[in-house]
Amino acid sequence: MTVLISNSLPRGLRREPASAVRVAPRQWINWAWLPVAAALGLSLLGVAAIGTTEAGLAKRQLGYLVVGMLAACVVGAQHWKWMRTWAWVMFGVNVAFLVFILVPFVPDAVVRPRNGARRWINVGSFDFQPSELVKLTWVLAMAAWLQAASSLRRVWGVAAAIGVTMVPVALIALQPDLDSALLFGPVLLVMLLAAGARVKHLVIVACVALALAPCSYPFLRSHQRARIDALVAQVMGDTRHNDTIGFQGSRAITLAASGGVLGLGKDEAGTLIRFNRLPEEHNDMIFVVIACRWGLAGGLAVWVLGAAFAFGAYQVAARAGTSFGRLAAIGVGTMVFVQLAVNTAMTIGMLPVSGMTLPFVSAGGSSLVCLWMATGVLFAIASRRPRGFDL
């Protein structure tokens, strides 16, 4: 009777009674291998791109890749039930870290400010960025909540999910890291849609957010307003700011276009990038390096690998067999693809220049390790499908 009732509910609202879920043996042949292969391709491409101008940093990034893959193996060996049980605890611990780095009297030796931002916790020779890990723990916590929520078909249910999400969003925005904070919005909408929320409610939320976005301009920090002003000037053909607030954006477009179809090669691209003094070429602007060194072919390779990661994650979701697994896989796939889209759009002048990194590609240990842990989550879901209960 329980099974019949559960199957009569909308797909996103079906429950997972413990007595009905029986776990099959681990399935080694599954769709999670596609995100794993895509993640490896992006990671190696990132190491090579970083090595265009920073050979020492490329070696360090390769070390982070090894650590990240080991972390993915550890996470992938776990059971998805364990992730669902401890999702809120892990999310809560991460939120506590976000609060900790904002405490003003914490010494710089522990929380090291960079360019006026407090985002990193110093752990020996490694700087840990809690905002990277909170993306994953938030996805797991929301998946655990949405798979059991009974109010998603009502406005207040959607509002409750938004309210919970605003906690990490507000804390990350205060660092300040508005770019990472805004990443949660589209991912939440996709997860709510997959969980069974009404489309009209989500459309209303999206329209309200878009309508209120221009009103936030006066409240932005000066450098954030400058980035928007630079984009507007660039679109209008105004080159007066190309050597000031629009320097990074104008250099990025020029260097990306210089690669042509097949690129300039390592030596010429490296010389050109150094000569033009492109800021953050190994981090936020790594896509420019790829386009300059490997041309349009390199840029398309990034998008093909990113799309393969998202497609594989959605295939894992379609075959997960549990609402939690489906929502978690959808969240991970959407998070990676949206981040990739925003990063590449800003480097070619379609969005304001921001600190959004290119997933798996940009230099940074916290980001790379956490992304590989998210890939491990996909493998854990895909390799441990329940049987005996159609969800």
Layout: helices, strands, pairs:
Elements (H helix, E strand, L loop, with lengths): L1 H6 L14 E2 L9 H18 L4 H22 L3 H21 L20 E3 L2 E3 L1 H17 L8 H19 L4 H5 L1 H12 L3 H14 L9 H14 L11 H12 L7 H10 L10 H33 L4 H25 L17 H19 L2 E2 L4
Helix pairs in contact: 2-3, 2-13, 2-15, 3-15, 4-5, 5-6, 5-8, 5-14, 5-15, 6-8, 8-14, 11-13, 12-13, 13-14, 14-15
How many strands?
Answer: 4
Overall SS class: mainly alpha
Provide the spatial order of strands within the biggest beta sheet: 1-4
Report how far apart the termini are.
15 Å
Describe the global form. Answer: globular
Explained architecture:
With 391 residues, the protein is mainly α. It is built from 15 helices and four strands. It has one domain (35-385). The protein has helices spanning 2-7, 33-50, 55-76, 80-100, 130-146, 155-173, 178-182, 184-195, 199-212, 222-235, 247-258, 266-275, 286-318, 323-347, 365-383; strands at residues 22-23, 121-123, 126-128, 386-387. The strands form two sheets. Strands 1-4 form a two-stranded antiparallel sheet. Helix 5 runs parallel beside helix 8 (184-195). The chain is globular, with a radius of gyration of 21 Å.
